[in-house]
Amino acid sequence: MSPAAPPSPSRPRALYGLLACVRLTAFEERAADAGRTASYEDKVVLAGLATGAFAQFERLRDRLIEAGVDPYEAMRPYQDAITAFHGRTRPADAMEALVKVYVADSILADLYREAVERTDPETRSVVHESLADSGHAEILTERLRAAAETDARLASRLGLWARRLVGEALSQAHAITERGPEVGALFGDEDVATMFGRIVDRHQARMRAVDLRD
Amino acid sequence: MSPAAPPSPSRPRALYGLLACVRLTAFEERAADAGRTASYEDKVVLAGLATGAFAQFERLRDRLIEAGVDPYEAMRPYQDAITAFHGRTRPADAMEALVKVYVADSILADLYREAVERTDPETRSVVHESLADSGHAEILTERLRAAAETDARLASRLGLWARRLVGEALSQAHAITERGPEVGALFGDEDVATMFGRIVDRHQARMRAVDLRD
Predict the structure, then answer these.
(1) Domains along the sequence of chain A with CATH
(2) Whether residue B142 has pLDDT greater than 90
(3) pLDDT at B4
(4) Shortest Cα distance from B212 to chain A (angstroms)?
(5) Which of chain B's residues have a Cβ under 8 Å away from the Cβ of A54?
(6) Lowest CB count within 10 Å: A61, B22, B29, B39, which one?
(7) Mean pLDDT computed over A172-200
(8) For A67, which DSSP code?
(9) Residues in domain Ferritin-like (chains A, B) (predicted)?
């Protein structure tokens, strides 16, 4: 472990800006998924996940403002990559939208946690806080497990969908670390493949937890 | 059957169901408006208003569940009228979306407050709580006043838009009181025209507050 680098002002700016952009876009995508959903039950789960993402966005935006940074300027460099990710992973229905939150959000959260492991405690705590569940995610595991148990065909379709999401989430992560050197630098010298390996392991454990085959 | 049952168990069911439906649909509409908005600033104001509406929905849904009522059954009778209202009042841009929240939400809030004036204190307090601002509406008056001051043409367009919204909000209210006798009964014997007159007066005061001509 190298001695902790003095807090670099550009790092929080880049990382908070990226995360704020991820969260605000997640709000929009989930809210749109909720809007397309006919069943009140699924609509409300997705809307709750959307408002949870917005609350996380608000915390990050407030930190950026406190740091004297224009939050929208900090977000802008990442918007295209994140929009493109959502464009490639548009759910066909409410169950696919729920799997997307479960799979992709967890992978991205794992990545951000890895990214801040070597930063100063304050950055770490802001990022951990911004990834904290707003209480709207509880129901997710439950609904996915119930769906997988009662409908083998659906479980198999969702399993394939999850596999696609993993690929897309990892390439999004790769693109962002390549394009944003400030963010890429956070991962330090560690072999990216090793880190991705750990993240895939955790993903597979989560898939088993809801009885979806990977 | 408890002897301590509230005066009329069907009233909260109807009123909370109506309000829950209004709030969940407001979430969807504002989130969709946010999604269509290119500017981060306006997007975030609309998204905040959307999450505020969702929090109000959640409170009403929880009250319905506590009362042993299926919230979605209680909401269903009002969905078509509310969806039709939004279909007739789709904002062309972010400013129109903000005016819509300012005008129509305030009118509907006034109506619900009138509706519960003669009910039991508990119903009254649940409804007042469900209409309380989540803190996301503060910025609204400010933005509208700023827009009206700097752009007379825009102010005039928004004034016309507001006038249309008043008409639509009042006909929505009329349709709902006619179709849902449980809700209509809440207004008692008072002449509806007198009540609508009071509501229009309050609306006009709000328009003056943001320098928009009615």
Answers:
(1) 10-209 (1.20.1260.10)
(2) no
(3) 44
(4) 29
(5) 47-48, 50-51
(6) B39
(7) 74
(8) T
(9) 15-178
CA distance A5 to chain B (A): 33
Tell me which chain B residues have a C-beta less than 8 angstroms from the C-beta of A55. 51
Residues 2-61, chain A, touching B (beta carbon < 8 A) = 24, 27-28, 31-32, 34-35, 40-41, 43-44, 47-48, 50-51, 54-55, 57-58, 61
With a cut of 50, say whether residue A4 has pLDDT above it: no
Shortest Cα distance, chain B CAs vs residue A14, angstroms: 17
SS3 string, chain B, reads: CCCCCCCCCHHHHHHHHHHHHHHHHHHHHHHHHHHHCCCHHHHHHHHHHHHHHHHHHHHHHHHHHHCCCCHHHHHHHHHHHHHHHHHHCCCCCHHHHHHHHHHHHHHHHHHHHHHCCCCCHHHHHHHHHHHCCCCCCHHHHHHHHHHHHHCHHHHHHHHHHHHHHHHHHHHHHHHHHHHCHHHHHHHCCCCHHHHHHHHHHHHHHHHHHCCCCC
Interface with chain A: mutation pick from B21, B23, B28, highest number of A CBs within 10 Å: B28
Residues 6+ apart with CB under 8 A from A202: A106, A110
ipTM confidence score:
0.86
Q: Are A143 and A33 in contact (CB under 8 A)?
A: no
pLDDT in tens, A112-150: 888 888 788 888 888 888 887 766 667 888 889 998 899
**Per-residue model confidence (pLDDT) at position A170:** 87
Task: Look up the pTM and report it.
Answer: 0.88
Residues of B in contact with A50 (CB under 8 A): 31, 50-51, 54
- The tens digit of pLDDT for each residue in B70-93 reads 999 999 999 998 999 999 999 999
pLDDT in tens, B117-134: 878 888 888 888 888 776
